[in-house]
């Protein structure tokens, strides 16, 4: 019983970490895009 709870908690934590990585990556892409727009570079 407690093993299931622990594994569920670990899966949840891993999911949160992956989501955080995705969010950071997306934010970086958006920041790069806005920076390129402001600098007048063409976004490919």
TrEMBL record:
Top-level taxonomic group: Eukaryota
SUPFAM superfamilies for the chain: DNA topoisomerase IV, alpha subunit
GO cellular component terms given for this protein: chromosome
InterPro entries, sorted: Spo11/TopoVI_A_sf, TOPRIM_Topo6A/Spo11
GO molecular function: DNA binding
Pfam families: TOP6A-Spo11_Toprim (PF21180)
Topoisomerase 6 subunit A/Spo11 TOPRIM domain mapped to chain residues: 1-38
Protein name per its UniProtKB record: Topoisomerase 6 subunit A/Spo11 TOPRIM domain-containing protein
Biological source species: Rotaria magnacalcarata
């Amino acid at each position: 019983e407690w093993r299931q709870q622990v594994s569920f908690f670990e899966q949840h934590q891993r999911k949160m970490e992956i989501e955080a990585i995705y969010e950071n990556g997306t934010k970086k892409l958006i920041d790069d895009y806005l920076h390129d727009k402001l600098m007048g570079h063409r976004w490919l």
